[in-house]
Amino acid sequence: CFACGERGACISCQRKGCSRSFHLPCGSEHGCISQFFRTFKSFCWEHRPEQRVQARPEADTVCIICLEPVEDKTSHSTMVCPACKGAWFHRACIQGQAVRAGRLCFRCPHCNDKRKFVPEMLRMGILIPMRTPAWEEEGAYEELYERHSRCDASRCLSRQGRQHAEDTGPWELLLCSSCASKGTHRRCSALGSTVGVWECDEC
Fold it and tell me: What residue intervals traverse the membrane (predicted)?
């Protein structure tokens, strides 16, 4: 490995004529780039791809993710969105964003562009895993998938309680057609079998 001098370096720079090899962690620490798509090419610090975007950050520009200052130009550790050219971020910050968002939701955190942003990040060595967003796996939105399941009439007539519901008949539970956060049994609100829409008092 050109970085640590130890054996077992199995990643080689793909630039023709370059004989540098390195371990993956050593390459990351010394500015090398490994691309995680198609032929999975890797490049040493001297031959790595550079962003082609002609943009420079204004004075006191901060990373849009961590809000810490960035360098005064694009570099290995300072990157910019190729679409809006106004979102600057550290490599480590955008890599963390990519791992959490996954391929489905990863996009520019400023302009939401995916068409230019994702291919450029892949070319620059950002790993974007094929996975669902981390925030969905952690159950942050589970409540959004829950359907309201109780009768909210001022006087519920069901002997089995407000939670009781049947598919048809007087104990069928209708949800408010506007907010869906209130419900009633047909009998509790004197709704006939032909009524298919109901709105709560608040709506």
Answer: none
